[in-house]
Write a structure and sequence with these properties.
With 333 residues, this protein is an alpha/beta fold. The chain contains 14 helices and eleven strands. β6, α7 and β7 form a beta-alpha-beta unit. α2 packs antiparallel against α12. The longest helix has 35 residues. The termini are far apart. It binds beta-D-galactopyranuronic acid. Beta-D-galactopyranuronic acid binds next to β3.
Length: 333
């Protein structure tokens, strides 16, 4: 009898312990689910329009996953310069980045077709293309290089700025001009007879200041926000390229996420675009006003045919596949 009671008591104690452990662990798991923390690298400062787009994207992802996925934005090159960041995204050490497609073209060559000089008639034309099946095919295609293309951001048009006066393409002959780490941009600058100097973005200011280079090229917001306008005061609005910005994820990171969360991330990126474009328009105006208030020589061209003619050989040199993409882009109304 005693033995039976003892056995019953032991069983009861074990049962209650198991129940406690089970019940307890269920509540703790719910309460203590750790969010997945992912990192996004951005080259620009915290208040730059692309960074504001990144923040919007991160905010939407966090909201729509009820805090299960948190994306931390590391702006101002905290995780490195663009080329190094792209490499790290490719092997999964960084989860996301927002970059210009110029350096990304070294990893996915077809991007060259999207960044040819004087390709788009204007910003609207570029957005028609990016929002069409052409843009979608590029976002999907970049998976071949181990990236997931999420969305496009605005980046205006790039123009040259140099230390010396400039009014025509011939003023660029022999000048040392910094370009992004992109073969296409090297070719573009060489088409004007300048000497291309590929260099990370963060080194440009002091390179101009110390005379290592004579100038560079970029859009209004970058010319202003980097302070390059202080050291290369002649800005000629030749608008030689519109280079889309892109938000990408590492395929290695993406593959670890559930299909449901992947869809949330994709949609959040798309839903951040309007906000980024609006921030772009505002900051472009702020930049123009600030540069003009600084007394820089800004030359607006009424005719850029000489500039366009100089880069024509680049089209002839494109391979047949990319030439076909160019034809499709030009046909978009
Ligand atoms: C900016 C672009 C950056 C970076 C930079 C550069 O317009 O937003 O991502 O590519 O140009 O010239 O390096």
């Amino acid at each position: 009898m005693k033995k039976k009671m003892l056995l019953c008591m032991v069983i009861l104690v074990i049962m209650s312990m198991t129940a406690f452990a089970g019940g307890g662990s269920e509540t703790t798991t719910e309460e203590e689910v750790e969010p997945i923390i992912l990192r996004l690298a951005e080259t620009h400062a915290s208040d730059y329009p692309t960074t504001l787009g990144d923040y919007k994207f991160a905010e939407l992802v966090e909201e729509r996953t009820d805090g299960r996925i948190v994306i931390e934005v590391f702006h101002s090159k905290q995780l490195g310069e663009e080329k190094a960041v792209i490499e790290q995204v490719q092997f999964g050490a960084i989860d996301f980045t927002r970059v210009s497609i110029s350096p990304l073209a070294a990893f996915y060559k077809p991007f060259d077709a999207l960044q040819m000089p004087y390709l788009y008639r204007n910003a609207d034309h570029m957005w028609q293309v990016l929002n069409s099946s052409i843009g979608d095919e590029f976002l999907a295609g970049v998976e071949d290089a181990n990236f997931i293309g999420l969305c496009w951001y605005e980046s205006g048009a790039r123009s040259f700025y140099v230390k010396t006066p400039i009014t025509s393409p011939s003023d660029l002959v022999g000048l040392k001009i910094r370009v992004q780490e992109s073969a296409l941009m090297v070719g573009l600058v060489e088409s004007f007879g300048a000497i291309a100097q590929p260099m990370p973005f963060g080194e440009v200011y002091s390179a101009i200041q110390t005379g290592v280079i004579d100038g560079a090229e970029n859009n209004w917001p970058s010319y202003y926000s980097t302070g390059h306008y202080e050291v290369a005061t002649n800005y000629i609005i030749d608008e030689h390229t519109r280079v889309p910005e892109i938000l990408i994820a590492s395929k290695l990171t993406f593959d670890k996420i559930s299909a449901e969360d992947q869809a949330i991330i994709m949609q959040a990126a798309k839903d951040s675009v309007d906000y980024q474009r609006q921030m772009w328009t505002e900051f472009e105006k702020v930049s123009m006003d600030a540069v003009e208030a600084n007394g820089n020589v800004v030359t607006i061209l009424s005719d850029n045919s000489a500039w366009q003619a100089a880069v024509q050989p680049m089209y002839d040199a494109l391979d047949a596949e990319l030439q076909a993409v160019v034809v499709k882009i030009r046909a978009v109304k």
